Every structure is written in C-alpha cells, then in structure tokens.
Amino acid sequence: MQQNINTEKDLQLRELDAMCVNESRLEHKWYHNFKYLVIGILFGIVFVKSEVISWFRIQEMFRLQSFHMYGIIGSAVITGMISIFLIKKFNIKTIYGEPIKIAPKTFNKGQIYGSLIFGLGWAMTGACPGPLFAQIGTGATVVAVTLLSAIAGTWVYGLRREKLPH
C-alpha cells in the first residue's frame, strides 16, 4: 500500500516538469520487449536508407546547402503534431488500455540554452542522439565517443538539474 502511494507521488512530481509521463503498471516477461528490438532495427534501417545518419547530410543542413534534412525533420514534426492532436481529441489509450497523459508545458529560457547546446554538439559531431546506434551499427565506431559524451551530458544534467533554469 505504501509503495503505491509513493509511486503515485513520484508520478505526480514527474508530471509537473515532463512532457509526457506514462508509466505502465503492467509487468511483463523479459521477451515481451523483443518487439521493441525489432522496431528499433527497422527504424535503424530507415535511418540508413534515408541518409539521416550521414555526417555529410548533417553538415549540408548546418551549412544551409540542402533541404534534405529539413524535409525529414519537418515531416517528423508535423507527424508528431498530428499524432498529439489525435491522441488528445479522441482520448486514445495505450494498447493495454491505459490513459495517455500529456502534461502542459510552458516555454522558458532553459529550452533556449538546451537547444543551443544540443545544436552545437550536433553540428560538431555530425550525430544526433536518435541515430547514434545506427551510425555505430554501420561501422562508424568513432561515434561511440559521441554516445559516451551524450551519456555523460545526461548524467551531468541529472546531477545539476535543480540548479538549471527550467
């Protein structure tokens, strides 16, 4: 009983500063996550075929020489906007029937700082966090340094989170 109360409080606290908090209360066997591995592999193949993981394409984007990456990012943003709209409008639930809660988010200066740091790292390394594993999978093992840097940055953020603007 006490654990349920603590879990509820934790979810309520995280809901205050998270875009989306969906914590399933269902427990599954280890092999239940196999479907996510398959989806991840397919997603990686799409990244490779669409050249999203190409350092050259990323540099083209930051030099404003090609629309390729802007088109991909723009279509992802539009797809996300439509998806969120439909989830809210039709009160769509997860495949297990759990409600999807999307907490309201306000704009603040911390998002500007974070996006500048993210963009600078992306431009310097030619790697976005999404396709890092696909880049490593194609043999660009030097990207492991970028992956370790992303993990370290996430750890430092967690350590200093309370002192940063939100």
Characterization of the model:
By secondary structure, this protein is an all-alpha fold. The chain has 2 domains: 105 residues, no CATH class; 60 residues, no CATH class. Helix content is 61%, strand content 0%. The protein has 7 helices and no strands. The protein is globular. The two termini are 33 Å apart. The mean pLDDT is 84. Keywords: Membrane, Transmembrane, Transmembrane helix. InterPro entries: DUF6691.
Order of helices and strands: HHHHHHH
- Principal-axis shape equals globular
Strand content: under 5%
Overall mean pLDDT score? 84
Percentage of helical residues? 55-70%
Give the tally of structural domains: 2
Oligomer: single chain
Number of DSSP helices?
7
Task: Decide which structural class fits the backbone.
Answer: mainly alpha
Instruction: Count every beta strand, where a strand is a DSSP E run of 2 or more residues.
Output: 0
Calculate the terminal CA-CA distance, rounded to whole Å: 33 Å
Question: How would a crystallographer describe the biggest sheet?
Answer: none
Unreliable segments of 5+ consecutive residues:
none
Radius of gyration, CA atoms, in whole angstroms: 19 Å
